[in-house]
Description:
Elements: H1 2-29, E1 32-35, H2 40-61, H3 67-91, E2 99-102, H4 119-133, H5 138-163
Antiparallel strand pairs: 1-2
Helix pairs in contact: 1-2, 2-5, 3-4, 4-5
Amino acid sequence: MYYSFIGLIGAERLVELVVSRRNAAWSFAHGGREFGRGHYPVMVGMHTLLLVSCIVEVASMHRPFLPWLGWPMVAVVVISTAVRWWCVSVLGKHWNPRLIVIKGAPLVRRGPYRWVHHPNYTAVAAEVAALPLVHSAWVTAIVFSVANALVLTVRIHAENVALGYT
């Protein structure tokens, strides 16, 4: 069941890539400029390896499903995915995991952006920690949470500069 859950998350990521490509084409057609290009492949690689590592750790280390941990972590993954798609819907054609900014476009201040500059990254951090813990893959949860924190430090700085926050 866990492997199917990971497959479902992987399929959801592929849908994101389709939306991302469509939105990138629209943004570039409207004068968009890409920032932080160097860290994007690192983000993609990290998220891909996260899914692989979830499977490898559970299979090779025989990690059990612990209902008291697993079910709450499923809830965290579902909620974080819902928040991420809320961000996608609020940003519309401006949403992209690539950092593409259209000069003069107003900053979004509705939806989850009313409260947080980067709600998507909050949801991603929760998901990165929770997804492996669904099946008690604690090594993957720790390693990828640290890796995600490092990547997001670079990403958020680049995004803040691109959006004029700093």
